[in-house]
Amino acid sequence: MTRILTLETTCDETAAAVITDSLEVLGSVVASQDKLHQQFGGVVPEIASRAHLENIVPVIDETMRRAGILLSDLDAIAVANTPGLAGSLLVGLSAAKSLCVALQKPLLAVNHLQAHIYACKIAFQENPFPCLGLIVSGGHSSLYCCTTPIDFTPLGGTIDDAAGEAFDKVAAMLGLPYPGGPSLQKAAEKGNPNAYSFPRSLLEEPERLAFSFSGLKTAVRYRLVGPGKTTEPATAAAGLSEQEIADIAASFQEAAVDCLVGKSIQALRKTGMKTLCIGGGVAANLRFRQKMEHAVQKERVRLLIAPVALCTDNAVMGAIAIERFNAGLFEPLDLNIHPGLIR
User: Fold this and answer.
1) Confidence of residue 340 (pLDDT cuts 50, 70, 90)
2) CB 15 within 8 A of CB 30
3) What phi-psi label fits residue 272: left (phi over 0), alpha (psi between -120 and 50 degrees) or beta?
4) I need a surface site. Which of 104, 109, 175, 206 has the fewest CB within 10 A?
């Protein structure tokens, strides 16, 4: 039995897991930084990297304790080295390299976005490949043609804000607490999704597999303060009723979800894929799940969405490293980080 320790420090969660070649999770720990970034309304890279430094050793220790094995029992160390925040990635990679040297174990690299898609294989214990992959998170909104677990071809992505980024920024405009995505969803539950007609960018261009949420975000701002005004949106929102806030949240959410679902369907039709795998933090949004499930039924496509626990950043999805281990795709100890997305 192959056992791999996977490390995840791409943004603001310090996570580790021990996974077997049968995709059994022997131990998993995630240390969240939400409270550290709450007062700033978003992730502060320097704070995130310092928190990773404090958390990485205790997280690994607790993971190994839960797994019930020793570090010497591991067959390899895997770490996400792209994409992400530079300082955060360095902490995870440094820890992984140190363990590899000390234990004389091979090093495996994990692409964080590909791992989000692989979470579907872990959750459903079935092989979804080949498939169309959609990653919707705070930093990425990307479509991939996933031929195998280690062969991803990019089809398109956001040309400005990612979906999760837009959720967080609109939540801040409305004065909703951090993290913005869950807060906005909660507010939207009491709102009318048809109260305001917000734009659904690029849906009229089926051949262009790209997302754009900047215009939608701006439309919400104009609804709150008006064009050309310098008033802070949150200040304007403070004067609105709870129902008005709910209606704006619901209308924004509906527009964002329509863009994600619409472009995914266009990509399915263009590629002819019969399986759609979805991962990333925004995939935890209930309205998104409802509309996507309804849309793929009409297309007669199999839909696999990672369970909520595997949507947000975690190390379990780093089990994709098993595929690289089996293929003999080990990394030299001079492996570097790639904060920007590498193909």
Assistant:
1) confident
2) yes
3) left
4) 104
pLDDT at position 50 over 90: yes
Per DSSP, 306 falls in state -
CA-to-CA distance for 277 and 273, rounded, in angstroms? 11
Name the nearest CA neighbour of 123 among 261, 14, 24: 24
Q: What global pTM score does this model have? A: 0.93
Grouping H, G, I as helix, E, B as strand and the rest as coil, residue 181 is helix
Measure CA of the first residue to CA of the last residue in the chain; give whole Å. 31
Q: Which of 263, 261, 303, 290 is nearest to 188 (CA)?
A: 290
- pLDDT-wise least confident of 120-124, 242-246, 337-341: 337-341
- Per DSSP (E only), the strands in the chain are 3-8, 13-20, 25-32, 76-82, 107-111, 131-136, 141-148, 151-157, 275-279, 302-305
Smallest CA-to-CA distance from 11 within 310, 284, 313 is with 313
Identify the residue whose tokens are 């550290």: 36
Domains of the chain as residue ranges with CATH: 3-117+311-326 (3.30.420.40), 127-308 (3.30.420.40)
* Amino acid identity for residue 343 in this structure: R
Cα–Cα distances (Å) from 230 to 10, 72, 168, 196, in that order, read 34, 59, 20, 22
φ and ψ at residue 43, rounded to 5 degrees: -75, 130
With contact defined as beta carbons under 8 Å apart, do 125 and 152 qualify? no
- Cα 239 from Cα 223, distance rounded (Å): 13
How far, in Å, CA of 146 to CA of 132, rounded?
6
Instruction: Please give the average per-residue pLDDT across 157-161, as a whole number.
Output: 94
Tell me the mean pLDDT in the region 140-154. Answer: 95
Average pLDDT over residues 19-40: 93
At 132-143, the pLDDT tens digits run 999 999 889 999
Q: Which residue has the tokens 């579907």?
A: 120
